[in-house]
Specification:
about 130 residues, alpha+beta, Beta-Lactamase, six-stranded antiparallel sheet, 2 helices
């Protein structure tokens, strides 16, 4: 059986629009600056959808190397990650997202039907936030 290269799969526009509505709604409901759908293509991860509110410092198409990012941990652990305040957490106090002012994070893995990782669905805040978990 031939391996499917999921990074080459084109996401239909209808799905992209629904995902955009999802991140916009998440940011509004949780009252956070950023809700994102990230797409992984090692060694990088890309902002695939970003909430369209003015306070969001992330833009669609931006990418970063997978080096110490919150989303990287979600993918490696295949589990949700909650960081209420990175500045108070020894493991996260030097996280690259702090440079954008994002000190709290809640993220979940997103997978393709074949079980490989698409990326993450996550929300970030510029203040301490436990997201009522």
């Amino acid at each position: 059986m031939e391996k499917i290269l999921t990074k080459d799969i084109k996401i239909p526009n209808g799905i992209i629009k629904k995902w955009q509505r999802t991140v916009d709604l998440l940011a509004e409901l949780l009252d956070v600056p950023a809700a994102l759908i990230m797409r992984v293509d090692p060694p990088y991860i890309e902002v695939f959808r970003a909430s369209s509110n003015e306070k969001n410092p992330y833009r669609v198409g931006e990418n970063d190397k997978l080096e110490g990012l919150y989303c990287e941990t979600v993918i490696k652990s295949d589990n949700k990650l909650l960081v209420p305040n990175a500045l108070k957490d020894e493991a996260w106090k030097n996280n690259p997202d702090i440079k954008k002012g994002m000190i709290s994070y809640l993220g979940f893995p997103i997978k393709w039907p074949n079980g490989s990782f698409f990326g993450t669905l996550c929300v970030l805040d510029n203040k301490e936030n436990s997201y009522n978990t």
